[in-house]
Amino acid sequence: MAKIKVKTPIVEMDGDEMTRIIWQMIKDKFIHPYLDVELKYYDLGVKSRDDSDDKITLESAKAIEELGVGVKCATITPDDDRVKEYDLKKQWRSPNGQIRSYLGGTVFRKPIMVKNIKPAVRNWKQPIIVGRHAYGDLYKNVEMVIGRPGIAELVFTPADGNGETRSTIHEFESSGVIMGVHNTDKSITDFATSCINYALSEKIDLWFAVKDTISKKYHTRFKNIFGALVADRMTEFEKAGIKYNYFLIDDAVAQIMKHEGNVLWAMRNYDGDVFSDMIAAGFGSLGMMTSVLVSPKGQFEYEAAHGTVKRHYYRHLKGEATSTNSVASIFAWTGAIKKRGELDGTPDVVKFGENLEKAVIDCIESGIVTKDLIPLMDKKPETHQTTEQFLDKVEKKLKELMK
Ligand code: NAP
Ligand code: MG
Q1: Are residues 21 and 96 in the same domain?
Q2: 68 band by pLDDT with thresholds 50, 70 and 90
Q3: For the chain, what is the mean pLDDT?
Q4: What does the alpha-carbon distance between residue 178 and residue 89 come to, in Å, rounded to a whole number?
Q5: How far apart are CA 77 and CA 310, in angstroms?
């Protein structure tokens, strides 16, 4: 069979541990046999980052900037233990964090749904996609422990030195604690723009929620920027047949439980940190959660939402059989392939991505699953598949579909 030609190269970022093992199998079974594609390969495995003094991470981000679409394997973000384990020169920064700060933009997490796994919340029939603002607020805070009586103030000193402003935070009579947080109009605007673009391209409603009744300046700023950007693009929303809904955050949390899904929930940084994990757990396994970074300029980086599945890797090294879910990693590839085909105007490439997704879903829906999914299923299959067995069965299905 002739291979399908992919016009523009795809940026490939390799990774670590169990996901690195799976990554190679995905390429051998599903990519190279079917696609005539140039992969711009960057090894972001922790040893290769260490050897290059982490220059390779930035190089891969630049390649995505140039080519538009990348696919990334999960990588280790080193802590003290990892520095010892891999004999690293230092605690290199998170590759994801670095790529995100280079390209800008927002990470959208989307669960893969199958008929035989019901979400924990009965009403959820379609994916709920979460977009988390990844700048500022609690994550760039300044804190102070107060140990004696005194006044804490918020002071702004203009660069030109004129018109300093102050407000009292609290007059302390004894010990306590204070915190200063910030955000910028630019970051909020970029975030809202990425969310609007994603909602329009996927044709799904957009939700945004803050606590503006209490925070009349800080939270209200978010609400106003979001609202104004949406208002500017109302004709596009109407054309796509989608709505923008603003809520109070507590109302949004209650409404999402009653909602049937197929919605993008844009969240402020802290809300996103907390509720994205709640939504992910509600849909089931981390092995079924995909993630895409969308930059404001329209570059896309696809990956699985989970990490390198360290515990399974250690078992693999001991020669024990593993049952690691490869679905999110496969869908990272199909996400990149479909997007590449869409941008290149090559429907056969898009179709191949869809076929690979169908092969995966068909397997799961016929009871061919890895161990992590069994507790989530009403009708449990008699056995689970090992990591390799699952991939072999998807390969067989794909062969049938590609005939
Ligand atoms: P993890 O890789 O997400 O795995 C945590 C646990 O979740 C696993 O031990 C496993 O539970 C379950 N799990 C996650 N993905 C699974 C899958 N595909 N199939 C089956 N079970 C799955 O987190 P971690 O092991 O705590 O972190 C390992 C490394 O990943 C860390 O060095 C961290 O820096 C890195 N990390 C990278 C990324 C990224 O690159 N995007 C994201 C997060 C973490 P059981 O053991 O109970 O089966
Ligand atoms: Mg979290």
Answers
A1: yes
A2: very high
A3: 95
A4: 36
A5: 12
CB contact burial 211-242 (16+ within 10 A = b; e otherwise): bbeeeeebbebbbebbeebbeebeeebeebeb
Q: Are 326 and 389 in contact (CB under 8 A)?
A: no
Task: Tell me the CA–centroid distance for residue 274 and ligand 2, in Å.
Answer: 5
**Are 210 and 258 within one domain?**
yes
Q: Which atom of ligand 1 is nearest to the CA of 15?
A: 40
| pLDDT tens-digit readout, 341-350 | 999 999 999 9
Residue 62: give the domain boundaries: 1-117+288-403
What's the average model confidence in pLDDT over 27-52?
Answer: 98
The structure's pTM equals: 0.90
Does residue 386's CB lie within 6 angstroms of at least one atom of ligand 1? Answer: no
Closest ligand 1 atom to residue 327 Cα is 18
Find, among 324, 361, 366, 230, the residue nearest to 23 by Cα: 324
Q: What percent of the chain has pLDDT over 70?
A: 100
Q: Exposed/middle/buried for 252, CB within 10 Å: 0-12, 13-18, 19+?
A: buried
| Cα 354 to Cα 368: distance, rounded to the nearest angstrom | 19
* Domain end position, chosen among 283, 318, 348: 283
For residues 237 and 320, membership in a common domain is answered with: no
**pLDDT for 295-327, tens place per residue?**
888 899 999 999 999 999 999 999 999 999 999
Token duo for residue 148: 């004696």
* Same domain for 161 and 130: no
When divided into structural domains, the chain yields a total of 3
372 shares its domain with 358: yes
For residue 377, give the CATH number of its domain: 3.40.718.10
Report whether residue 44 contacts ligand 1, using a CB cutoff of 6 Å: no
State which of 251, 283, 315 marks the end of a domain: 283
Cβ of 323 less than 6 Å from ligand 1: no
Are 292 and 388 part of one and the same domain? yes
Atom of ligand 1 nearest to the CA of 287: 18
pLDDT in the model for residue 135: 86
In sequence order, the 6+-apart residues with CB closer than 8 A to the CB of 68 are: 8, 298, 299, 300, 340, 343
Structure confidence at residue 64 as a pLDDT band (50, 70, 90): very high
Q: Which of 40, 46, 41, 23 is nearest to 94 (CA)?
A: 46
Cβ of residue 336 lying under 6 Å from some atom of ligand 1 = no
| Tokens (6 digits) for 327 | 């679905």
Q: Do 160 and 259 lie in a common domain?
A: no
